[in-house]
Amino acid sequence: MEQQTIKQALTKAENEGVTLSRVEAEEFRDFQKRKRMSEIYRLTSAMEAELGDTDDMQRVCERARRLKQSAVRLPLTKMAQAKYYLAGSDVALDCVVGGTGETLTKVKAYEARLALKNGAKELTVRIAPSFIDGCRFAEIKKELKRIRRLAGKKPWKVAVEKNEVSTSLVRVARIASEVGAAYFCIPYFTGCERLRLELTGKCRLQVSGVNSAETCNKLFSFGVGRVVTSQAWEIYNEWLADMQKPKTTIERVTPKIEKRMDKTANDETDYRCRLEGNKLLFY
Asked: Per-residue b/e over 77-94, b at no fewer than 16 CB within 10 Å?
């Protein structure tokens, strides 16, 4: 019934000078608010928290639970404590294996098995920078196939630390897609979103080091699958504050020339509105 009322109000607004009651106007504003909150929750669920060396683990995990973030990225050494703080929630533990990437494949495989045994729901394996610089793509592919077998049906990701689009980075992105990785992860840099065009199948782009709402909005608008940030709480509050600001799509204006001719209209209960482009203007 409420949705029908809103649709009727919008249909009326197609004609200039249509009168909306106070109730209809308030319902429309409430509808927009709920729609915006739903969008904010959708975006926060596509954000992954990152646990740094100096971060308070309890605070990071509690905020991830409250925002219903997808996962918390952390090293193997902090798995046990984070598992305690996230118990009973849908926030996944995303364990990073391989340190900086310059680790033997068998060591990465051992860490992956240990992480899965201790409750990791996602794995992030870092590729050795020397492999990328040396164009050792066959070895990269072999290593990733081994991690894929260990991960089974759990989501796993390929992470690199390169901060520019290059031929070698594009090749690694394509390999990640070929071997079935859920995400190809890169740090944020200008133009990083272009790498999503190199991914095929179900592999999506994940960007880490995102620390502002503006950057986050831009990446999501380009189709980035997930962002990793240590500033999720600040970004969330910035979105909430922005939601409270008057929107350009609904403005209250005072007509300069038009005058209401209906003497029986009630100024306390009736609003008038008109469409100007894609703006619904109330007065």
From this structure: ebbeebeebbeeeebbbb
| Relative orientation angle of helices 22-44 and 232-244, to the nearest 10 degrees | 170
List Cα–Cα distances, 260 to 19, 250, 266, 268, in angstroms. Answer: 10, 20, 11, 14
> What string of DSSP letters covers 152-196?
TTS-EEEE----S--HHHHHHHHHHHHTT-SEEEEE--TTGGGGG
Say whether pLDDT at 41 is over 70: yes
Task: State whether the Cα torsion 249-251-257-262 is positive or negative.
Answer: positive
| pLDDT higher at 38 or 265 | 38
The full DSSP string for 7-62 is: HHHHHHTTSTTEEEEHHHHHHHHHHHHHHHHHHHHHHHTTEEEE--TTS-HHHHHH
**DSSP code for 221:** H
Contact 185, 158 (CB under 8 A): yes
| pTM of this structure | 0.77
Residue with tokens 């003497």, as numbered in its chain: 263
